[in-house]
Amino acid sequence: MHLFLFIFAVLNAMQKRLILNAELLSITVDRLCQQLIENHSNFANAVILGLQPRGVHFSDLLVAHLRQLISKDIPYGYLDATFYRDDFRRRDKLATANATKIDFIIEDKEVILVDDVLFTGRTVRAALDAMMAYGRPSKVELMVLINRKYTRDLPISPDYIGKDVNTIETQKVLVDIGAGKKNKVWLINEEA
Amino acid sequence: MPLSQQHLLGIKNITAEDIQLIFTTADNFKEVINRPIKKVPSLRDITIANVFFENSTRTRLSFELAEKRLSADVINFSAASSSVKKGETLLDTVNNILAMKVDMVVMRHASPGAPHFLARHIRANIVNAGDGTHEHPTQALLDTFSIREKLGGVAGKKVAIIGDIMHSRVAISNIFALQKLGAEVMVCGPITLLPKYIGALGVKVELDVQKALAWCDVANVLRIQLERQQIKYFPSLREYALYYGINRERLNRLDKEITIMHPGPINRGVELNSDVADSEHAIILDQVENGVAIRMAILYLLANAAA
After folding, report:
1. CATH number, domain with residue B197
2. Pairwise CA distance, residues A192 & A166, whole Å
3. Residue B193's domain spans which residues?
4. Which domains does chain A have, with CATH numbers?
5. What residues of chain B lie within 8 A of the CB of A90, using their CB?
6. A88/B24 CB distance under 8 A
7. Mutation for A interface: B44, B46, B104, B304, most A CBs within 10 A
8. Distance between CA atoms of B292 and B298, rounded to whole angstroms?
9. With an 8 Å Cβ cutoff, are A82 and B28 in contact?
């Protein structure tokens, strides 16, 4: 009986592996904030855009911590890239749009795009296009919580990385963070 | 959840969920058309033909603008300057257009059911931009979207549709859309301009315009469609204006404020007086703005449901 339970636990662990727990996550967020402060010192010209829909849970967390650290309000908004995606009509599922909330000017600003997982890079490509509809930033940087290595379809690489993860295409990264969530990040094996 | 239909032929054959999906998508597009750059690349590999066998200004401009803001390629066709005058059939005309690799057809036609006929015979998404006195689904969607925006919702609201119900495709589509979204509907007009069995649609019928105004939260005032009236349905426009025209004095007699809508074009001084049409109660120009967002949403969602 115990052997069965043990095998079950091992199989389960193979299907779903924890890559960030709540404590590691808060350390990571803190480290990313420090890196941002290093590069942008007083954030005089910087703005932060969280990518809809899932990146905003992470960016909410990040911006809240950053505002605490520098005790200053930073322009922060949400960007939705649905209408700029390159897979419209090329996949079965309908991409439903989310709200874009940018109530400041991004012309000549240093924009920090924030997403939870960087996979093929296509969402970031679409987000760059979507962002340009609001103006011409002087510089754009990319921050991701999880960087999936060796899976890029496009020449896109992040400037700030929470954690590098080696993955294969069939695996999924589950980011369970935000209000009422467990603040954990999992790697899931689909085929198992 | 995608749309349940590949075409938008009428409100009658779409579901309440479809309408809600169109509304939430239109919310996003309304934000897009208020950006500095009002254009998104979603439909850049799609060609849309606007085929208008009947005159139109607003609807056609609105569709064309919606298509261009979605980056679609657009071709325009109007019957007045085409081979239709030489005796070509509807199917031949449209098949010829489709042979040029068109993905979607937006059509207005004087015959009820023309877009339904087309949908059965050709492989393209069809959008009905008005078929005779039958349906005008995009107008109904933008009207209900405007009510939702102004009053915060459609369910439970009382809407009176006033005027020439008999010849109005806007009225039929609005009745279907409002009922699917849970609103109460009343039609009001001279008895000669009310279809005999309109009550069978589950709407209230009222002949006294003042009572209709007192009952409703929203009055959707329709144009007298003289071009569709082969016989006289009322003695004169002056008499119509006297008994059914909405003016400031009628609104002042109410103990509440109501919202005034009109699908355009307005016959000022007939069904609607300028002192009402230009007042803060009227959302006529909001309707026009919402029309572009609603049409963008419809085209975007239909493009995803390839024919």
Report:
1. 3.40.50.1370
2. 18
3. 137-284
4. 19-189 (3.40.50.2020)
5. none
6. no
7. B304
8. 10
9. yes
CA B6 to chain A, closest CA, distance in angstroms equals: 13
Give A60→chain B minimum CA distance, Å. 21
Give dist(CA A174, CA A133) in Å, integer: 30
Average pLDDT on B59-87 reads 86
Q: Is residue B10 part of a domain?
A: no
* Closest-CA residue of chain B to A80: B28
Q: How far apart are the first and last CA of chain B?
A: 17
Question: B42 CB near a chain A CB, below 8 Å?
Answer: yes
Residue B5 lies in a domain: no
- Say whether both B85 and B183 belong to one domain: no
Residues B30, B67 within the same domain: yes
Question: Cis peptide before A137, with omega less than 30 degrees from 0?
Answer: no
Q: Is residue B3 part of a domain?
A: no
What domain count does chain B have?
2
Q: What is the pLDDT of residues B133-149, one digit of tens each?
A: 999 999 999 999 999 99
Buried b / exposed e over B118-151, threshold 16 CB at 10 Å, is: bbeebebbbbbbbbbbbbbbbbbbbbbbbbbbbb
How does residue A100 score in pLDDT terms, banded at 50, 70 and 90? confident
Select from B1, B25, B36 the Cβ nearest to the Cβ of A134.
B36
Q: A172, exposed or middle or buried, with CB in 10 Å at 0-12, 13-18, 19+?
A: middle
Q: Do B276 and B226 form a contact (C-beta atoms < 8 A)?
A: no
* For testing contact with chain B, the best of A78, A83, A103, A122 (most B CBs within 10 A): A83
Sheet holding B104-109: strands in order across?
A: B73-78, B47-52, B104-109, B125-131
Using a CB-CB cut-off of 8 Å, the residues of chain B touching A83 are: 28, 32, 40-42, 300
Predicted local distance difference test score (pLDDT) of residue B244: 94
Position B183 in a domain: yes
CB proximity B193 to A under 8 Å: no
Tens digit of each residue's pLDDT (9 = 90 or more) over B17-62: 999 999 999 999 999 998 888 899 999 999 999 999 988 888 999 9
**Chain A residues in contact with B306 (beta carbon < 8 A):** 89
